[in-house]
Design goal:
The chain is mainly α. The chain has helices at residues 2-21, 32-69, 80-106, 113-131.
Amino acid sequence: MAAKARKKILSKTEVFSSFFFGGCMNTAQMVPSAQIIVSIIPIIGILMGGAILFFYLLWRHKQVSLLIKTNSYKPARVDLRIFSLLTGLLLSGTGFILSLLFFLLEGLSYSLLGGLIPCVLGLALIAFYFLYPKDIK
């Protein structure tokens, strides 16, 4: 009896899958309404992210301007050396992994630049970390 119920659930899933996706997850073979939904989701995500970023910048600006009016604003100090080291390590690590992946997948091709560019930028930032004088404030 459980096998029959399971078979019915699987058949409903297959019907749902074939109705909306044409039996597979390829967007070219989807029903047009599903293609529209799939294409709208990233647009809505970008718009929501933009709205969040806009309101963060607006409220941060109001906060800083009120702190300046009350004479209690202290600007944040950014350590350029540490920032360049962190960014360089992240970029070079990500670039190395991407370069390795692209090389293994496609060999020597233009797609390899997708990993070599961040890797070289990261190495340049690490070199900046070592060449930048330590006593400049």
